[in-house]
């Protein structure tokens, strides 16, 4: 969504965006860049397909923008979830 909004603002010929995610659990020893050193981690493999007559530079920039979207930043941060029962 963030990349599509950016392309629209720039008036680039982006026709569609397809996002595919694959979730898995991995051992921390299989993650060289992770801060956590024990146990298991969630891993999300992400692929983004942009369609339309875009240049290589535009595709590269759209991927950069997609990598900074609010959802990704939330998933990469520490999250606290607080639950409350409502009557």
Average of the residue pLDDT scores: 89
Strand order of the largest sheet: 1-2
Q: Give the count of structural domains.
A: 1
Residue share in helix: 25-40%
Number of helices: 3
Which assembly state applies to the chains in this document?
single chain
- SS strand fraction: 25-35%
Tell the overall outline: extended
Number of strands: 2
Compressed to H and E, one letter per element, the order equals HEEHH
Kindly name the structural category: alpha+beta
Identify low-pLDDT runs.
none
Q: Can you give keywords for this protein?
A:
single chain, 2 strands
Give the SSE map:
Blueprint: H1 2-10, E1 16-27, E2 40-51, H2 56-66, H3 70-76
Antiparallel strand pairs: 1-2
Helix pairs in contact: 1-2
Task: Please provide a written account of the structure.
The chain has 87 residues and is of the alpha+beta class. The chain has one domain (2-74). Helices cover 31% and strands 28% of the residues. The protein has three helices and two strands. The protein has helices at residues 2-10, 56-66, 70-76; strands at residues 16-27, 40-51. The protein has a two-stranded antiparallel ribbon with strand order 1-2.
Q: Quick gist of this model?
A:
The protein is 31% helix and 28% strand. It contains three helices and two strands; from the N terminus they run αββαα. The protein has one domain (2-74).
């Amino acid at each position: 969504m963030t990349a599509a909004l950016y392309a629209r603002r720039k008036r680039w010929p982006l026709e569609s965006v397809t996002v595919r995610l694959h979730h898995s659990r991995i051992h921390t020893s299989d993650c060289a860049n992770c801060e956590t050193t024990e146990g298991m981690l969630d891993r999300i493999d992400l692929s983004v397909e942009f369609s339309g007559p875009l240049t290589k530079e535009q595709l590269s920039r759209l991927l950069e923008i997609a990598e900074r979207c609010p959802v990704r930043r939330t998933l990469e941060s520490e999250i606290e979830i607080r639950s409350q029962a409502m009557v």
